[in-house]
């Protein structure tokens, strides 16, 4: 689905990523672990195409021969940023509808305990609820690549399990799912754990 080849990233003198190789296959959930500052967020941003590496390349598994830039279409990548980043002026349901290109996602909202909150705006729900809505939004268009940065960081244990189950279900229907997490429970849902040291 996606391959990182010799990917490097520096922020000034900081080597955020030394050359990293990583293959992601459809149908698998990969959990990226490692200490704070080890480069997890940077790797996710590069894998999703939101950040440009200083060296190496990001190769989509299904090559797009006529495109000069190796990049998948936006609609085909679901992203849960650490910052959550919902549209504040839209209800949770409308945030999903925007991502999906139409209404729907009721099952996802239910699976993530959001049904009764669907008509609220992000400012009217808790941080944990916002985060689950961001997960729902990332999954609602059934993208082939899902990238989530600490998607259970604001959840209690029961809700963390629901978030992980939703991400697992996306992998089981064929998506490549890459998440960064400190949560040992997340590793239990993974096909593979990839540990990042200092970059
Ligand atoms: P993690 O997600 O594992 O905590 P990050 O990818 O956020 O790690 O950060 C890796 C390293 O790069 C850290 O040393 C961090 O301080 C640095 N870094 C990340 N983003 C920036 C930035 N925008 N500017 C400068 N340094 C950054
Ligand atoms: P927690 O911190 O346990 O996640 P909160 O205390 O933030 O929960 O929220 C508790 C309940 O109040 C949640 O169901 C949430 O939807 C609701 N709530 C939180 N903030 C607001 C708000 N600004 N306006 C309306 N409802 C809110």
From TrEMBL:
Keywords: ATP-binding, Nucleotide-binding. InterPro entries: AAA+_ATPase, ABC_transporter-like_ATP-bd, ABC_transpr_LolD-like, P-loop_NTPase. One of its GO terms (cellular component) is plasma membrane. One of its GO terms (molecular function) is transmembrane transporter activity. The keyword ATP-binding applies. Residues 2-199 form the ABC transporter domain. The keyword Thylakoid does not apply. This is Putative ABC transport system ATP-binding protein.
């Amino acid at each position: 689905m996606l391959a990182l080849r010799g990917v490097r990233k520096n922020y000034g003198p900081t080597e955020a990523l030394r050359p990293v190789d990583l293959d992601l296959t459809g149908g698998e959930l990969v959990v990226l672990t490692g200490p704070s500052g080890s480069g997890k967020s940077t790797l996710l941003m590069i894998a999703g195409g939101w950040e440009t590496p200083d060296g190496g390349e990001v190769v989509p598994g299904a090559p797009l021969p006529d495109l000069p830039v190796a990049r998948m279409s936006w609609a085909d990548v679901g992203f849960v940023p650490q910052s959550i980043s919902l549209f504040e002026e839209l209800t949770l349901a409308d945030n999903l509808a925007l991502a999906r290109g139409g209404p729907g996602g009721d099952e996802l909202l239910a699976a993530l305990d959001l049904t009764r909150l669907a008509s609220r705006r992000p400012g009217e729900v808790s941080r944990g609820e916002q985060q689950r809505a961001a997960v729902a939004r990332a999954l609602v268009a059934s993208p082939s690549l899902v990238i989530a940065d600490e998607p259970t960081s604001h959840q209690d244990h029961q809700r963390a399990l629901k978030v992980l189950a939703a991400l697992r279900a996306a992998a089981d229907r064929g998506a490549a799912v890459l998440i960064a997490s400190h949560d040992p429970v997340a590793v239990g849902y993974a096909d593979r754990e990839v540990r990042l040291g200092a970059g």
